Amino acid sequence: MDLTLTWDLFVIVFFAVIMTYSFIIGKHESVKIIIASYISVVAVQGIGNLLARISTSDPLFSMMGITIDITLLSTTKLVLFVAAVIFLAVRGGFEIEFKREPGGSVDLVLTGIFGFATAGLLLSTLLTYVADVPILSKTIAETASIATIIQGSQLMAAMITYQDLWFAGPALLVLATGFIGKEQS
User: Fold this and answer.
1) How far is CA 90 from the centre of its chain?
2) Any bridge partners for residue 100, and if so which?
3) I need a labelling partner for 40 at 20 to 30 A (CA). Which of 4, 10, 89, 134 fits?
4) Residue 59 confidence class, pLDDT cut points 50, 70, 90
5) Pseudo-torsion of CA 174, 95, 13, 163, nearest 10°?
6) pTM
């Protein structure tokens, strides 16, 4: 079997790993990771914007010859995002409990859907940081780093084309889950 590494293979493996992890940790912890991801996206985007603003306008950095290039800023955002998600999920101090539990096979399906949505949210966020564009930017496909990736990968092109859905989907799923199931006693 001839297996070549492609971006499509990367997307498939990324989704498989995140979905498998979601089944291991369960529905409640999957939702916790989704919430931690949203918090991390906002925090890291704000920190990145602040670093970019300080590095271009602060005379102290200019005098010392310190500049923050796009690659360094993108890498910093990626590292901060991963660290923030892990920290919030492990040590964030919040627990998820559904008052309405569907139970049975519906729980299994929800866990899989949450895993799929989490993978889409995480990968879409990582692509946004690699492109060094604002969250939900319509110009992400035009950046040099992303344009070369999507030329050879239909799955990456779908990730970029439907980035709005990847960002909104997990939140909508969490909202919809509140309407499913029976009230616990």
Assistant:
1) 17
2) 183
3) 10
4) low
5) 40
6) 0.85
